[in-house]
Design goal:
mainly alpha, two-stranded antiparallel ribbon
């Protein structure tokens, strides 16, 4: 028997190096996705093509991400140009804004608070039981 140091993937495969384990998991995820999205695809041939064109595919992915990032930044700039910053935004009552005047704060303190609700069934299993209300028996300072 020997002590083993390494990495075990989600499917239970052991690898001595982390890079090998990550490659195995990435390939497994890709194979699952391909089998779901393209059930008639020959995965063996697909991986042969992928291995042959991996550098070109990597360049395409990098260019695609750069293009997508630039497009998002351009869209963000267009939206940002339309915002009028000349006046500060106004607070509306419908948004729940409370001003800091003493009258408003006093009216806020008069609002009703939530009490203990009836929690008759807390579990999701068929054997869920009612939760007893223990506050009266076991309150602060009582035992």
């Amino acid at each position: 028997m020997r002590k083993a140091e390494g990495f075990i993937t989600n499917d239970g495969t052991f690898f001595e190096r982390q890079e090998e384990a990550e490659l195995h998991e990435a390939e497994t995820k890709l194979r699952v996705k391909l089998s779901v999205d393209f059930p008639n695809l020959s995965q063996g041939k697909f991986f042969i093509i992928l291995d042959d064109a991996i550098e070109v595919i990597g360049e395409y992915i990098d260019a695609y991400k750069a293009h997508d990032t630039a497009k998002r930044a351009e869209t963000k700039d267009e939206i940002g140009d339309k915002v009028d910053d000349s006046e500060p935004p106004e607070a509306h009552d419908s948004l729940g804004h409370v001003s800091s005047t003493e009258e408003d704060l006093t009216s806020l303190l008069k609002l009703p608070t939530r009490g203990h609700g009836n929690v008759s069934d807390v579990g999701s299993s068929p054997r869920a039981e009612e939760v007893p209300h223990r506050r009266k028996k076991h309150g602060p300072g009582m035992r």
